[in-house]
Amino acid sequence: MPRMSIQTFTCSDTFTLESGKRIENLRIAYHTYGSLNERKDNVVWVCHALTGNSDVFEWWPGLFGSTDFFNPKDYFIICANSIGSPYGTTYPLSINPATGQPYYLAFPSFSIRDVAAAHRLLAAHLGIEKIALAIGGSLGGQQVLEWAIMDSSRIDRLVLVATNAIHSPWGIAFNESQRLAISADRTFYANKPNGGAKGLKAARSMALLSYRGYDTYGATQLETSNEKTDGFRASSYQNYQGEKLVKRFNAYSYWFLSKAMDGHNIGRGRADIRDVLRQIKAKTLVIGINSDLLFPITEQKFLTNHIPDAVYAEINSFYGHDGFLIETERITEEISRFLSHNKATQNQLAYQQVS
Ligand SMILES: CC(=O)SCCNC(=O)CCNC(=O)[C@H](O)C(C)(C)COP(=O)(O)OP(=O)(O)OC[C@H]1O[C@@H](n2cnc3c(N)ncnc32)[C@H](O)[C@@H]1OP(=O)(O)O
Ligand SMILES: N[C@@H](CCO)C(=O)O
């Protein structure tokens, strides 16, 4: 089965953002794995989180892969890179056609709805009418939720992992603190590709604290000697993780993507959030991770209580929010149960109709 390398689609029309600002010739990078079946009912659309990319086989192994639950033999898997992300889609270091220079801080602010609108455009370009299942965790889950509201008849099933209907004051405070670190690095305003690199390193170090927890650090970074007064493993880990992100990301993308996360609110310009959730037609599985500090399970229970056809599953993990990327065995079990339950219900309905 074909595993395609990265592909791009360039939008020939002007892409108008929720804010009214525009992006000319929006380029969307994406990966596909497998192919559309004859019944056209095997599309799985994945949305990535804050620092992810369109190669879902790379960042969600154990759930997506040639021998995993979502594999190219059974499914036509599509994952698109978000607006603003540095993995191939138009982003702050792309050339602004109005100036002939990279945008940097002049990049237009975009929202999660804009990212979902870009997914819709790509789906139209690929001739995808029906999505059998759309899945995302964290910021990816926010996109999937928005898409299911904007386009309620296109998506049959949703899997929302460690995500929410509105970004919380707590989540915004984390993001703002990270942006404070970025903006305290004056090189951020130099408009250079590595501008704000030291700030980004500090931001990732802060973000890690919200992605993991006391127990995760205790299990992986505990000292074995009583003698140390400096040079702790946990310090080295924070530095390493910050530098690791700096090597593959940039401060400008991080700034705009984190702002999009802050603005996530499915009620904006619509109605009460509970009423908006009630509009979702897709059969939905909501997964929460019991140790998630950033997107606590109260947020997933809220989604489940207000999406009409939703079930909730909770994963017991000590990884915190990052558990959505790591606990693939448990997530696979829950998705498998969700899909077989739905199949059983369908068969039951078909039987009732003919009998
Ligand atoms: C699979 C990918 O990462 S694809 C890259 C794109 N990334 C994404 O799409 C984002 C989603 N992925 C992620 O956020 C992360 O990869 C996660 C959450 C899935 C896993 O995080 P990781 O950083 O790989 O795992 P973990 O927190 O256990 O850290 C392990 C790393 O820290 C290093 N490390 C651990 N303890 C220490 C320490 N005390 N001092 C220095 N380094 C340390 C390890 O050597 C290892 O290094 P490596 O990544 O170079 O192999
Ligand atoms: N580790 C994830 C967390 C954000 O949900 C990322 O870097 O994208």
Describe how the helices and strands are arranged:
Layout: E1 7-10, E2 15-16, E3 22-23, E4 27-33, E5 43-47, H1 56-59, E6 76-80, E7 95-96, E8 101-102, H2 112-125, E9 131-137, H3 139-150, E10 155-161, H4 169-184, H5 197-211, H6 214-221, H7 233-248, H8 251-262, H9 273-278, E11 283-289, H10 297-306, E12 310-315, H11 323-326, H12 328-354
Parallel strand pairs: 5-6, 5-9, 9-10, 10-11, 11-12
Antiparallel strand pairs: 1-4, 2-3, 4-6, 7-8
The chain binds acetyl coenzyme *A (ACO) and L-homoserine (HSE).
CATH class of the largest domain: Alpha Beta
Please tell me the CATH architecture of the largest domain by its name: 3-Layer(aba) Sandwich
Strand content: 15-25%
Q: What is the CATH superfamily of the largest domain? A: Alpha/Beta hydrolase fold, catalytic domain
Q: Cofactors and ligands present?
A: acetyl coenzyme *A, L-homoserine
Q: Which residue ranges are poorly predicted, with pLDDT under 50 across at least 5 consecutive positions?
A: 349-355
The SSE string, one letter per element, is EEEEEHEEEHEHEHHHHHHEHEHH
- In DSSP terms (H or I, runs of 4 or more residues), the helix count works out at 12
How many structural domains are formed by the residues?
2
Radius of gyration: 21 Å
Overall shape: globular
Which descriptors would you attach to this protein?
16% strand, Rna Polymerase Sigma Factor, Chain: A, Rossmann fold, binds acetyl coenzyme *A, eight-stranded mixed sheet, 355 residues, two-stranded antiparallel ribbon, binds L-homoserine, methionine biosynthesis
